[in-house]
Design brief:
Shape: globular
Oligomer: single chain
Distance between the termini: 44 Å
Structural class: alpha/beta
Strand order of the largest sheet: 1-2-3-4-5-6-7-9
Strand content: 5-15%
Order of helices and strands: EHEHEHEHHHHEHEHEHHHEHEH
Helix content: 40-55%
Number of helices: 14
Number of strands: 9
């Protein structure tokens, strides 16, 4: 099911400067060693304001749980915070893991966000847990993860009906309304806007790609941690696409890990902190993002070195010009309609500077 009240131009961005496609931000709200979650959230505000000033199209945050180095367990709360501190940039979830939540709750949360920041909210949805199995079971109050994932299409249809307030007569939920939402516009004396956030499907494999295509929804692919599946998933999305009331043609963005620095060696030094953090996560040792000094001192085993080298092969890093070249090449190879950049490093200054340099390299204007 899709909604007919989402305009094409709410989804498609406009490239700024001489960037080949719109550039956006994926913010994991990372917490570095020696830093607090409060500081990480302040950095998110700094990045969102910079992104707005320099012409990035949207700023998304992602749902993760039980990870000390990632402070984005509550996307709706963070987005409300960012909405109060920005004026124009689109804000959204990249994404909310729908099987972790009741669809009505998500409809209420994002209806509230839409009321706080009209016309600026995106609702990106994923079917993965965003965490380990035990934590997902605690979130979902189930013993098996497949139960939530397998029900994803049904949950999506239910969420869409709550957002559009259009359950058919006789449905058990026909008299239930997500508020804020369209019911306020149809109530006597109602002046509430009936608009609601556009839905995006997120994925790292073919399932969501096919579903997004069949429903005519925009699609976001997690290239930053599933690079070898990017081109097949985008091809599947485009081949499966059916025009809808949301989109008349496919629109796909990809998440890209990229970090620019004034010095190529410093860029390498900074991205090693993210590589070591990911190694620890994948081997069951999640923690805070290590410092560059800690990453330099770490003694990698041959197997760990192989993992890190493979991980870094998909992180675009270097000087601003090197990163621009890498991003342009990636866009050419994938045909992505938008690039959503996640710049992960230990320190706030390195992350903020990276987004500034990437904007400079693409000639994105600095407002007077």
């Amino acid at each position: 099911m899709v909604a007919a009240n989402t305009a094409d131009d709410e989804i498609r961005g406009t490239a700024q400067g001489d960037a080949p496609v719109p550039l956006s931000v994926l913010d994991l709200v990372t917490v570095g060693s020696g830093r607090t979650a409060t500081q990480a959230l302040r950095t998110s505000v700094d990045i969102a304001r910079l992104a707005e000033r320099r012409g990035y199209h949207r700023h998304w945050v992602a749902e993760h749980h039980s990870m000390p180095g990632v402070a984005s367990s509550s996307p709706a709360v963070i987005l409300a915070h960012l909405a109060a501190r920005t004026e124009r940039i689109r804000l959204g979830s990249g994404g909310v893991m729908l099987p972790n939540h009741a669809p009505l709750v998500i409809a209420e949360q994002f209806g509230t966000l839409e009321a706080l920041a009209p016309g600026r909210i995106d609702l990106g949805l994923g079917r993965a847990p965003g965490t380990d199995g035990a934590t997902a079971a605690a979130l979902r109050r189930t013993e098996g993860l497949a139960e939530g994932a397998d029900d994803f299409p049904q949950q999506l249809a239910e969420l869409t009906r709550f957002l559009d307030d259009d359950f058919p007569q006789g449905h058990p939920y026909a008299r239930i309304h997500a508020v804020p939402g369209p019911i306020q516009a149809s109530s006597p004396g109602g002046v509430q806007s009936p608009a609601r956030p556009p839905i995006w499907l997120l994925g790292s494999s073919g399932f969501s790609a096919r579903l997004a295509g069949m429903l005519g929804l925009p699609f976001a692919f997690a290239h930053h941690f599933s690079a070898r599946h990017t081109v097949p998933a985008l091809e599947l999305y485009r081949d499966s696409f059916r025009p809808s009331g949301v989109l008349d043609a496919p629109y796909a963005l990809i998440g890209v890990a990229a970090l620019a620095s004034d010095d190529a060696g410093e860029a390498r030094r900074q991205v090693m902190t993210g590589a070591l953090s990911m190694l620890r996560l994948r081997t069951g040792r999640p923690g805070l993002i290590p410092t560059p000094e800690e990453a330099e001192a770490y003694r990698f085993s041959p197997m760990e070195r192989e993992f890190v080298d493979g991980w870094l092969a998909n992180v675009v890093h270097g000087t601003a010009d090197e990163v621009r070249s890498g991003l342009d090449d990636l866009r050419e190879r994938t045909g992505a309609d938008e690039l959503m950049i996640t710049s992960n490093a230990h320190g706030a200054d390195a992350r903020v500077r990276s987004y500034e340099l990437i904007a400079d390299a693409h000639g994105m204007p600095e407002p007077a």
